[in-house]
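Postdoc handover notes: sequence design on the structure in folder B. Input tokens:
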């Protein structure tokens, strides 16, 4: 407001202006630029007086304001006044009655305790956007008033209620829209996560996902378990930076890509290298952290690569917790980095935990403190993977209103004894001596499969597959060569390794070809087959047969 302009209308301002023009200038002393007499008369004419603000009757002012006004007086809050707007909203009121009887509509918004508080403290208080019985929303301001400087018993309270229904409804619509958006993001997020985890033969796994409790906290956390064949298992957990539907959509694309790259049976760092390029193509402004790990039960280790993600924690059978060290690279989508793989021991009886930052990161403490707290919780955790998973979430204080989403993946390599151990057996043979290695391998496989008490048809198929894989390695591979047989409670696995890194492929042999049928035969009789390059150079070719159910 331009106060200078409005002050000209206040009483006394006009009189001071007129006094400055009372002294008129005689005609003989006027210069050519003097003000004409008519103009002087116009300036000196006094305007009608306007009442001062202090002179305005308060009741007339309050009766005309659109807000609801009520005045209560004394320690028992007897009604002294309501304005016309209040009467229009709630009807006539009995003056002199107690507020609880005269103004029952103030009970639902919770104003009566506030009246006592304002009268005792002598300070105004406000309740924002409270709904009244008429269905409209008001912001109530209670201001103490005192007559003649009296004591507290003479104090009254002026209740001033502003109708904010339009604002309240707009805010409610906005909140409903945000809730719908969050529900959409959560639904998309959960639909893109695995509905059921794959169950490896040698591992027991469990996972959980908790969306953030705030409107903006639904992010792109994900996890997955991928059986690679040959007894090996890939485990992955990641976190897309950002919130909402966009982060969930990017997460879905990355998870699908990980599963596709995993089928290539590449080392962990090569999978992350491919994933890094894809993340840049999906959205150059979107980055994500990820850990990709492979478990091979024959090696007793977890080989992993990390793209800016938090370290894997492993608890051995004695309760000692080890934190996976370097190597780790920058998050996916940054580009220009060559990832490398590392490994950590995962022997029978061990438990590993993979997690996202929502589990350990807090605004009021260092990240390392959160990881250390998780290590302490894991050191005392026993039971099934699901029990340990739930314990990790509880120990971190994750509640439904947690400010970030949380994903946890727990895997156990159980130590098997007794009858259970009889279902998990290994046998290996070094292939030495050139062409005579083939009949030795067949005799070895026949004896092992007989000792494992396989039915005749499975025994014969296993010996045939062993013969073809060994013959293929003798013809196309280089030493050292090794045959390994492995059984689990679900399948028979046959694997041959050699020093040549050229992977075989299935092809159609022509009628006149003398070779090229071995892999085709294996692919036909086996449930599954595959090949991969081994870390030290060379390759491994494997096949597996599903065991009949007892």
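Designed sequence:
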């Amino acid at each position: 407001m331009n106060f200078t302009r409005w002050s000209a209308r206040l009483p006394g301002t006009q009189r001071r202006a007129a006094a400055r023009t009372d002294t008129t200038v005689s005609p003989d002393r006027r210069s050519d630029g003097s003000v004409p007499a008519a103009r002087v008369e116009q300036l000196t004419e006094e305007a009608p007086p306007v009442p001062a603000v202090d002179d305005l009757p308060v009741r007339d002012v309050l009766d005309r304001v659109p807000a609801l006004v009520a005045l209560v007086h004394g320690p028992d809050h007897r009604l002294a006044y309501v304005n016309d707007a209040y009467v229009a909203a709630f009807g006539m009121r009995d003056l002199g009655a107690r507020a609880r009887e005269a103004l029952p509509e103030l009970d639902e918004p919770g104003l009566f305790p506030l009246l006592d508080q304002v009268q005792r403290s002598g300070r105004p208080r406000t309740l924002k956007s409270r709904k009244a019985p008429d269905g409209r929303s008001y912001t109530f301001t209670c201001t103490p008033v005192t007559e003649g400087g009296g004591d507290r018993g003479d104090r009254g309270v002026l209740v001033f209620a502003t109708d904010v229904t339009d604002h309240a409804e707009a805010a409610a619509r906005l909140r409903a829209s945000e809730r719908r958006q969050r529900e959409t993001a959560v639904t998309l997020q959960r639909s893109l996560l695995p509905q059921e985890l794959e169950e490896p033969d040698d591992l027991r796994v469990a996972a959980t996902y908790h969306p953030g409790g705030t409107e903006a906290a639904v992010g792109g956390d994900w996890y997955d378990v991928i059986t690679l064949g040959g007894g090996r298992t890939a485990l992955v957990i990641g976190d897309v930076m950002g919130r909402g539907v966009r982060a969930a959509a990017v997460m879905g694309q990355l998870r699908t890509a990980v599963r596709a790259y995993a089928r290539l049976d590449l080392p962990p760092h090569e999978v992350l290298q491919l994933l890094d390029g894809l993340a840049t193509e999906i959205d150059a402004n979107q980055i994500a952290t990820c850990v990709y790990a492979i478990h091979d039960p024959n090696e007793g280790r977890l080989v992993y690569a990390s793209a800016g993600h938090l370290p894997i924690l492993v608890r051995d059978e004695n309760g000692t917790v080890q934190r996976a060290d370097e190597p780790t690279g920058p998050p996916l989508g940054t580009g220009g980095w060559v990832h490398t793989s590392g490994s950590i021991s995962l022997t029978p009886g061990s438990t590993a935990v993979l997690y996202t930052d929502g589990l350990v990161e807090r605004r009021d403490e260092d990240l390392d403190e959160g990881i250390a707290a998780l290590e302490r919780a894991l050191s005392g955790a026993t039971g099934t993977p699901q029990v340990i998973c739930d314990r990790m979430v509880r120990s971190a204080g994750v509640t439904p209103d947690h400010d970030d989403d949380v994903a946890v993946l727990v895997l156990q390599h159980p130590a098997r004894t007794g009858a259970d151990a009889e279902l998990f057996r290994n046998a290996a043979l070094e292939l030495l001596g050139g062409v005579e290695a083939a009949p030795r391998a067949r005799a070895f496989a026949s004896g092992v499969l007989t000792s494992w008490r396989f039915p005749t048809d499975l025994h014969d198929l296993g010996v045939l597959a062993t013969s073809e894989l060994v013959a293929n390695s003798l013809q196309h591979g280089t030493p050292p060569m090794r045959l390994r047989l492995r059984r689990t409670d679900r399948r028979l696995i046959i694997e041959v390794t050699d020093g040549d890194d050229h992977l075989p492929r299935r092809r159609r042999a022509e009628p006149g070809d003398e070779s090229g049928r071995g892999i085709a035969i294996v692919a036909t009789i086996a449930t599954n087959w595959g090949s991969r390059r081994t870390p030290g150079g060379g390759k491994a070719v494997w096949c597996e047969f599903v065991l009949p159910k007892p």
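Context for whoever picks this up: Residues 165-192 form the longest helix (28 residues). Don't rerun without checking with the PI first.
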